[in-house]
Every structure is written in C-alpha cells, then in structure tokens.
Design brief:
The chain is about 30% helix and about 25% strand. It is of the alpha+beta class and about 325 residues long. It folds into 2 domains: about 180 residues, Fructose-1,6-Bisphosphatase, Chain A, domain 1; about 130 residues, D-Maltodextrin-Binding Protein, domain 2 (3-Layer(aba) Sandwich). Strands 4-3-5-6-7-8-9-10 form an 8-stranded mixed beta sheet, sandwiched between helices. The chain has a 5-stranded mixed beta sheet with strand order 12-11-13-17-15, sandwiched between helices. A two-stranded antiparallel ribbon has the order 1-2. It binds 2,5-anhydro-1,6-di-O-phosphono-D-glucitol and manganese (II) ion (MN) (2 copies).
Length: about 325
C-alpha cells in the first residue's frame, strides 16, 4: 500500500476519539512537530555552538545531564504548553509532573525529551519520545497519581528521530504513520504507509553485550542461543534509532536488567523508563505488528506504580520476541 496521510488528518481517522479530543490531539501533534523541527535545527548547530557536552548537573535518574537534555526539555515543554490541551507533563528530566493547563487540559503527556544523549558527543543519532494519555474520571488530585492512573488509557504515542533525516513516527494504536521533515519548508510531510515490521520478522538483534555477564541467567541463555543463528548485531545506543531500524528492517531490541558489579552501577530493574520509553515504543510496536515485553509479560500489562519506573525492555518483530520468550521460559 502506498497511501500517505497528513499529520493533520491522523486524529480524524480515529473512531475512538471525541471531537474535542481530536482537536486536542491535532494540537499536540503540531506541538511535537514544531518542537521536533526546532530541535533538528538546534542539534545540527550543536558542535559549532559547543553544545554537545554535559550541562554540569545530574538528573532525577542519577544520570549526567547533557546541555541538549535541558534544551529539549525547554523546547517541548513550551510547544506542548502552548496547545492548552495538556494537564500534566511528566519528563525524564523533571522529578515531579509539571502542571501545564490544569483541569482544562484534555490529556496527560510523558516524554523523554532527548533519547540517546550520549550520542551527541559524536554527532550520532538521537531522538525524542512521547506518550499521550487520557485522564480517568474522578482522578486523584496528586499529579503523579493522576498521571499513573491515565497510563492505562493511552491516546497516542510518537517519536522523533534526528539522524541523516528527521522523522516523526506516530501511532494512535491502530497503525503506524511516519513523516519526514522538509527543512526548507519547515514541515513534516507524510511518507507512504502504514509502517509495519517486515514479514518473517527479520534477523537484527540490538543489545549491549558488554552488560551480558550481569544479566539474569535466562537473558544470558538467549544471548547464547544466537550463536550459530542467522542474525546481525546492530546497536547504536539510542533506543529511538535502534527501534526504528528494527521496525524498518526487522529485528529485536533488548535492554534486560543488569546486576551491579563490585557494588556499583547496574540497573537490576532495567534501565529504560516505563512511561516515556517502554510504553510508547510498545504501542508503536504493537500497531506495527510487533510486541514488547519486560522479559515475561507484555509491557502494556506492567502496572505503573511510579512516574519514573524502570523496566527491562524487549521489543521488536513478533516472531523474534516470541522466540525470545520461548528461550527464557525454557528450564535451564
Ligand atoms: P537517555 O539518553 O534518554 O538516558 O536514554 C538512553 C537509553 C537508550 O536510548 C539506549 O538504548 C540505552 O540507554 C543505551 O544504554 P547503554 O549505553 O547502557 O547501552
Ligand atoms: Mn531515553
Ligand atoms: Mn533522555
């Protein structure tokens, strides 16, 4: 199928949205496109402006903040606030949800404003990830509790990939659409779609093998199972890029929990964040015919208990994720 759907038209294709939600979703999509366009321009100038290094701070995750983490935080907070459609914004870069438009907002949003930021120093690909949720009726007054409850009701998710071209990929849950930035026009133009994992599942595996000795035995068994199997190893270290490549070419991305070594480091509960990394990618994977799991169960079945919750993530084409699940479930 070679059908193109404009960004503006996407919400109109969604039967499950009320008229105000369709209008609100359109505004939030514009905000992501406007922020993505602005970020693409700023990132291109990063090395010339000396902006590709650390900002000299540590974020709520205990990770070194890069200058562009903070710039992306400010750019997207501004464009999303201007929609008037968002109550609370959860971000990797802020400990608490930011209240944007109060109860007049239609949605809650969770974002990873700059994903793969360690690639900035080498002009490697980075991304931005978003998930938009529908507030539940009679939600708690505590903003974190309100957002957590809304996570069970996603409206759409999206990512921007900043690489040799800047792409915007969006799903409302039914299908995945992609758009490419035309820098001369300053617009995201539709690419043919919908986008789906290729038939057969593909043969790319993306993981940080340097952590493997600190994985649980089941994940090490999976890695061993690849030896002799027909597969290609590809790992950029930016979830958006690794996921996008695997979506286009067929593959699987894994970031299992890893135990601390010598009493330090490690991410026993996984490194990636449920609300603004795992869930948005899981929604896109499912809508493209793939799946995402936490090592046992679907990511979309993981109960959200903390806005910055981490989770092991295995995501990709369905046959490869099912093969992974078979291997980790087999008795050692
Ligand atoms: P972020 O830059 O938002 O903190 O995310 C980085 C994440 C993810 O994008 C990537 O796949 C993973 O961390 C890479 O981790 P390692 O460097 O440990 O492999
Ligand atoms: Mn990230
Ligand atoms: Mn980030």
């Amino acid at each position: 199928m070679d059908e193109r759907v404009g960004l503006d038209e996407l919400p109109d294709k969604e039967a499950g949205l009320s008229a105000p939600e369709r209008e609100g979703a359109r505004k939030v999509l514009w905000a992501l496109a406007a922020g993505g366009r602005e970020m693409a321009g700023l990132l291109a100038l990063g090395p010339l402006k000396g902006l590709t290094g650390a900002a000299g701070a540590v974020n709520v995750q205990g990770e070194e903040v890069q200058a562009f983490d903070e710039i992306a935080q400010e750019v997207f907070t501004r464009t999303i606030r201007e929609t008037g459609a968002v109550r609370c914004l959860v971000s990797e870069e802020r400990e608490s949800p930011e209240i944007l438009n109060g109860s007049s907002g239609l949605f809650h949003v969770a974002m990873d404003p700059l994903d793969g930021s360690s690639n900035l120093a080498v002009s490697g690909p980075v991304g931005s990830i978003f998930c938009v949720f529908r507030p539940s009726a009679g939600e708690p007054s505590d903003p974190s509790a309100a957002v957590l409850r809304s996570v069970l009701s996603p409206v759409f998710s999206a990512y921007v990939l900043y690489s040799v071209s800047t792409l915007l990929v969006v799903t409302f849950g039914r299908e995945v659409r992609q758009f490419a930035l035309d820098p001369a026009r300053g617009e995201f133009l539709p690419l043919p779609g919908p986008l789906r994992f290729p038939g057969g599942g593909g043969d790319i595996v993306s993981l940080n093998a340097g952590n493997a000795s600190r994985w649980r035995e089941e994940d090490q068994r999976y890695l061993r199972s690849l030896s002799g199997a027909p597969y290609s190893a590809r790992y950029v270290g930016a979830l958006v890029m690794d996921f996008h490549r695997n979506l286009k070419k067929g593959g699987i991305y894994l970031y299992p929990g890893d135990m601390p070594k010598g009493g330090s480091g490690g991410h026993p509960e996984g490194k990636l964040r449920l609300l603004y990394e795992a869930i948005p990618m899981a929604l896109i994977a499912r809508a493209a015919g793939g799946e995402a799991v936490d090592g046992h169960r679907p990511i979309l079945d993981v109960p959200p208990v903390h806005i910055h919750q981490r989770v092991p993530l295995v995501v990709g084409s369905r046959p490869l994720v099912e093969r992974y699940l078979r291997i980790v479930a087999a008795p050692s």
